[in-house]
Amino acid sequence: MAAEGGGKEMNEIKTQFTTREGLYKLLSHSEYSRPNRVPFNSQGSNPVRVSFVNVNDQSGNGDRLCFNVGRELYFYIYKGVRKAADLSKPIDKRIYKGTQPTCHDFNHLTATAESVSLLVGFSAGQVQLIDPIKKETSKLFNEERLIDKSRVTCVKWVPGSESLFLVAHSSGNMYLYNVEHTCGTTAPHYQLLKQGESFTVHTCKSKSTRNPLLKWTVGEGALNEFAFSPDGKFLACVSQDGFLRVFNFDSVELHGTMKSYFGGLLCVCWSPDGKYIVTGGEDDLVTVWSFVDCRVIARGHGHKSWVSVVAFDPYTTSVEESDPMEFSGSDEDFQDLHFGRDRANSTQSRLSKRNSTDSRPVSVTYRFGSVGQDTQLCLWDLTEDILFPHQPLSRARTHTNVMNATSPPSGSGGTNPGSNGNSITTPGNSVPPPLPRSNSLPHSAVSNAGSKSSVMDGAIASGVSKFATLSLHDRKERHHEKDHKRNHSMGHISSKSSDKLNLVTKTKTDPAKTLGTPLCPRMEDVPLLEPLICKKIAHERLTVLIFLEDCIVTACQEGFICTWARPGKV
Q: Where would I find the WD repeats (predicted)?
């Protein structure tokens, strides 16, 4: 696409964009909304959310979607890129009084063409279990609000379970429920099960088994979202206190933590192989965290406001056998990247080669996306030079949107004074190259990144390689919608970010004293990614980003759910 100009063109809403895979196109006939198609006046209402389920009916059109707009909840057949949306015939529609739906999740294990189990969380704290195909309401949990009176921020079925589900609230508490059990007529009594750094877990004390089975209290302030790892064993939580906390779900142990640059963290997701976690929040950044090393490996700066959803694209995350010559060309050379489920199996067979004795026979690219309150969609690539910064960069991908430090950054004047000329090293030198820098870093930050840190960074990074193999995991495809629901806090934090956030914050002391520690490294201490694309795609803040096999689904606070056809899928 031609570069956007200034002025009016900058405010135009994009209906297509191009990446190295090709052209993504907005399908205007596939837009879902309330039947009247009138933009919803969203002042003071909860974020629009979308959930998908496939009911495996024989017609080949088994996709169903649920979305909430204000007090209303809709359930439609989703025709995606194939046919126009027929909004006149929702399968189910509900209008609530006194409380609003805030989030929802389908049980993919139990879904059939005759029956689906949909959990819906509400602004007053209740959770409803409904079947929108049978049009039944089977159960209401926390009905009297004796368990928690605060807004439900996130609700998800426990992976692999037909009956267990987890609910997070803006109180900072999470509760584990079993659909088979009742909630009791009195407030629950708890006894301590486990206590750790800034978290406690209690069991419910009662003569007969009742809900909730467990109560987790995590961090300070609202618990904005949680996400289960692809294998279901770990739970990542992000909170208004700015912390990511990753737990072993069964043993209730804290695996690792990270702190935002500033402000609350609003959203979280896992890479398809469970090796990386991405968060977004009120610092306008996306942050990539290594699960194995428990450390920040990159930040991405493209949004101009809070990041409300992050999600990995499992269909564009690729494992590519590489010939040293392969990466010398331009973006056109990457048209053959693995794209889509049909080629995932061939990816599987190559994974073992990633661990073979050859140094780097296969190269890895993770694709993820983010949407924010700035109405922009950003796509990001996490490539070899970020994942394996200690290895020679001669075979690193050329399309990475991070400037390799092997060429002097513009404005830094080559090497720094007094750095023995080692601050910029070439792949032939024995000194590990410093971390990649992006063009968007202020010059002062670039010139600080001298050679004194590069040897250390290389040493730390060398611990990564043996874990950084990409296996798309044997998780079943039914999990690919697991990370869809996003919950971002409506908390009003007075400190709005500035574009120069990495300079401004230097002068203030971080209240938690975390800045500059492994919990929250300084901006110049980790690579800063730039987005592959950053496009304004809506009039109102964006609240949904879901990657499906043949399309990308986004939604904004006006209640419009948009389908973007992947290249060649129209």
A: 258-290
